[in-house]
């Protein structure tokens, strides 16, 4: 019974929010990396092309990690040349200098490293201490910056950690400072297990800007494990954040599985930003169509509520 | 891999928010009214008893509407005496004077009427104009107040309407004023089709308080059709709202069906409020257990992300 004008919310701007937000689309990397099914290279390339056609300007493409660790993205060398001519930014994840070599050889101009705010996750994910991981990233960042390549620093477990519980804010601030001091251009503050709430977001951002970190260097990366991602995003926008990570269709953690990571769906984010009168440049209808297309390839419906509402997709 | 301390978020209060929020639980009425399955009276009674055992203090119990219109709640006369001794508030919906008679005969001390902000929905739902519906409610409210019964006025379609599109704020303010002027003690501002976004919420609440409506008389009733309910709730809390409607387990509109209404899940709300350090008096673990129990009766998993995350419930 929806009429066409309700395919978009009424725009009613709120005071004190940014005029424009850059969405850092992570579906093709963070999303597909965490899906059970391995997607053929040609489908990945078409996915990135369709995402670029929606108006998204930053589309994280793949990861140059060892195929043994992330078999879903083992085709990075084949995929990247297929999409590198697109008129969008295509950051790639590089875990170490070997990954950087591979990315640079293909002409990548944006890379990302993946650090941890907690010792437990650094140990589990990288088999290193937090400081050993930072030491591993330092030459990666230095060499990338030497070639004028943009570097993003992901920081996982910024709010809670499955082994350590709540993560102290000063601990997060210390690792953020270290990543910026070694040359990272921007950070992505990850709520990897989805336990953040809006007051916690405000407190962390306030502590970071109080420690001299410019808010323009901060992106946020929320998970919808407990349904909090958009409320947390609103709190971040109210602190001046203008870079928000999201995953088309909520790829990368079906909320109906125990292994849920529950990435914030780009469509749910775009719906809110449109309603707030915040420009993203994204065509929501095209984005929904892209996520429905990818959901068909994955053989399951998108967990995004906006995708479901606008596509009348049934589970 | 979750440790026990992560069954609740870290409490990090934000400034400018209320210290306490009253949750108006609508699962047993608005929830079950919109489920396909008709639930046996004994199960409904047990559901309300379990909800009362979680610490919820206001549990909307049923509706005294003609059974022809809402067969799911045709057992109101049988259900109410089963639960009326519980030490909680048990408001009931009354569509007209006949419904009020039935509710008062059973000793109900809180009733609710259900108005519309738009002509299209008033026509569809009540077969009346907005003003004709108000005229129908006036003697209901007057008689209830004469017996010192608390009256809530639901106002649906406060943000968007499926036939009319975006709903002008002055139109909503006018009907709110009329409901308060006839004696309603509180209003529930309904985003019936889920299209509200936070700036729209702020604008409506600002307009209402600017028109002399005390914020203490205002509750909010958001739907998660597009995933916006918690972000909208945060915006409402920032305007001083302390009454929030929610439905245990997200009952009342499976988001995976075309007929989705997508009530905000009480668990997702409680998670956010706990994180914000806002007292609700609700035991989240008991609430999740109650929703899992009811989901088993309905034969489908809860759509609440928090229920799924904490119960490891599979679809």
From TrEMBL, chains A, B:
Residues 21-288 form the Pyruvate carboxyltransferase domain. Transmembrane segments: none annotated. It comes from the Bacteria. Keywords: Lyase, Metal-binding. One of its GO terms (molecular function) is lyase activity. Gene3D superfamilies: Aldolase class I (3.20.20.70). Belongs to the HMG-CoA lyase family. NCBIfam families: PRK05692.1. This is Hydroxymethylglutaryl-CoA lyase.
């Amino acid at each position: 019974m929806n009429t066409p004008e309700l395919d978009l919310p009424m725009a009613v701007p709120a005071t004190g929010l940014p005029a424009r937000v850059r969405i850092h689309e992570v579906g093709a990397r963070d999303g597909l990396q965490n899906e059970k099914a391995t997607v053929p290279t040609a489908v990945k390339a078409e996915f990135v092309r369709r995402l670029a056609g929606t108006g998204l300007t930053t589309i994280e493409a793949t990861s140059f990690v060892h195929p043994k660790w992330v078999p879903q993205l083992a085709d990075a060398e084949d995929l990247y040349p297929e999409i590198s001519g697109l008129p969008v930014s295509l950051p790639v994840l590089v875990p170490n200098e070997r990954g950087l070599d591979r990315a640079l050889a293909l002409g990548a101009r944006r890379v990302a490293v993946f650090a941890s705010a907690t010792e437990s996750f650094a140990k589990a994910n990288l088999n290193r201490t937090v400081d050993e991981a930072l030491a591993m990233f330092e030459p990666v960042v230095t060499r990338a910056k030497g070639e004028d390549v943009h570097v993003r620093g992901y920081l996982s477990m910024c709010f809670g950690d499955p082994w350590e519980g709540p993560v102290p804010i000063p601990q997060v601030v210390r690792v953020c400072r270290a990543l910026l001091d070694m040359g990272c251009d921007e950070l992505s503050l990850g709520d990897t297990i989805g336990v953040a709430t809006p007051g916690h977001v405000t407190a962390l951002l306030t502590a970071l800007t109080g420690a001299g970190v410019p808010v323009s260097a901060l992106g946020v990366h929320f998970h919808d494990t407990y349904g909090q991602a958009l409320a947390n995003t609103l709190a971040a926008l109210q602190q001046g954040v203008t870079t928000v990570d999201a995953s088309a269709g909520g790829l990368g953690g079906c909320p109906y599985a125990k292994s849920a990571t529950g990435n914030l769906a780009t469509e749910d984010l775009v719906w809110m930003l449109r309603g707030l009168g915040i420009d993203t440049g994204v065509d929501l209808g095209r984005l929904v169509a892209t996520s429905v297309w990818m959901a068909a390839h994955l053989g399951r419906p998108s967990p995004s509520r906006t995708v479901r509402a606008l596509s009348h997709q049934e589970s």
